[in-house]
Amino acid sequence: MKEIIMVKYGEIALKGINKKTFEDMLQNNIKRRLKLIGQFAYSRNQSTIYIEPQDDNTDMHTVVESLKRVFGIGAIQKCAVFPKDFDTVANNVGEYLKDTLADAKTFKVEAKRADKTFPMNSPQIQQALGDAVLDAFPHLEVDVHNPEVTVRLEIRDVGAYLSAKRITGAGGMPVGSSGKALLMLSGGIDSPVAGYMMAKRGLVVDCIHYISPPYTSERALLKVQKLCEQMTDWCGDIMFYCVPFTEIQEALRDNCPEEYFTVLMRRLMVKIANIVCKRDKYGAIITGESLAQVASQTLPALYCTNTAAEFPVFRPVIGMDKIEITEIARKIGTFETSILPYEDCCTVFSPKHPRTKPHIEDILAAESSYDFDSMIAEAVSKTTVRRFKYGEETVFLD
Ligand code: ATP
Ligand code: MG
After folding, report:
1. Cβ–ligand 1 contact at 345 (below 6 Å)
2. Does the pTM exceed 0.85?
């Protein structure tokens, strides 16, 4: 029996005149992923993409798992394709849906007849298919209002499509449909989650990371690269900018009041991000900051950091607590990597008593006491770039 997959749109379904642009993007994003699994034919109709494997041995489970991570998809449905002959469908419904229906208690049938030449109308199909299901599973009861399982039969031009399970998709908008942004990625739990959340809103998310060798180790860098690799599951390909930050941190340590260290460091990180954004056309900066989580994330400290930014700064986890952020980190698969105990450059020289309420005047005065602008320009010129491709494992950490 031939199986195909129907992908139902999420928010795209609500779009108006430019809906087709979003649909094309979603389909391209899907194609890019599935080409690693096999060959598929694609067609579209009424807010649905039909994905048909070209090879009978295609691993459909892997296909579904991969689709579950594609933003823009509202629901995923595997379905069996039959000839447009009702008896054939009725004779096979028990076998095809046995895993789904054997343990269920209630069901209903929904029929859709796109091919109006089909001899039965939708209510007739629903009635007859309901009877066939009851014949195969006499323990079931019909519940049209709140069924455990909805059996769907769609009569299309090309065949009759039977399905029962609807898997919730990742939701959101197709990656790329909102432009691109630069995520400040640390090795922690929060920033990968922040990247995931903004990719969900349709942004291409590329990452910038600041390292301070020899204070931070090769291991710490590998860990962040691993996070990048894991994020490609959701975000697609990711550009990874790695900025040497040691000299800037040493200059901060030697020339500025210790209590301002973290905020000044964060401002200089943001200033470097500004330059990369301008040069490589990113429209926003993303961070994993969460209000009140640490001294550098109080309202006055965030104000001081924010004024260094020349682009909108998206902080999608600002209102979330650590438990909520951790839940998402587990779901997207980054948590175990994030908790590996390698140091981040933020913890190097971190002050014993950071100011929780820094004044912007003091911060600006400290920042202008030294020629950080030329150091920033130099750090940008020494920045290395690497591309992480979806589906490729390249970083090994034990
Ligand atoms: P995270 O889990 O994101 O590390 P955190 O609680 O450790 O969160 P901080 O260390 O205060 O937070 O950093 C706040 C934000 O600053 C991070 O979420 C990240 O966006 C950015 N950031 C911190 N360190 C780095 C770094 N080395 N490279 C790039 N961005 C960084
Ligand atoms: Mg951190």
Report:
1. yes
2. yes
Phi, psi of 136 (to 5 degrees): -75, -35
Instruction: Please name the residue that has the structure tokens 């908790």.
Output: 339
Q: What are the angstrom distances between the C-alpha of 156 and each of 46, 50, 94, 133, 292?
A: 12, 11, 21, 21, 55
The string of pLDDT tens digits covering residues 287-329 is 999 998 887 889 999 999 999 999 999 999 999 999 999 999 9
What is the 146 CA–ligand 1 centroid distance (Å)?
A: 45
Structure tokens at 392: 């490729």
Asked if 286 and 194 count as a contact pair (C-beta separation under 8 A), the reply is: yes
Is 205 close to ligand 1, i.e. is its CB under 6 Å away? no
Give the distance (Å) from ligand 1 centre to CA of residue 370. Answer: 24
Query: 180-184 and 285-286 as β-strands: parallel, antiparallel, unpaired?
Result: parallel
How confident is the model over 332-346, as pLDDT tens digits?
999 999 999 988 777
Looking up tokens 């379905």 gives 79
In order of 52, 152, 167, 244, the CA distances from 79 in angstroms are 10, 9, 12, 51
B/e letters for 68-77, b = 16+ CB within 10 Å, e = fewer, are ebbbbbbbbb
b/e map 362-382, b = 16+ CB within 10 Å: ebeebbeebebeebbeebbee
Q: How far apart are CA 14 and CA 192, in angstroms?
A: 29
Please indicate whether residue 289, judged by its CB atom, sits closer than 6 Å to ligand 1: yes
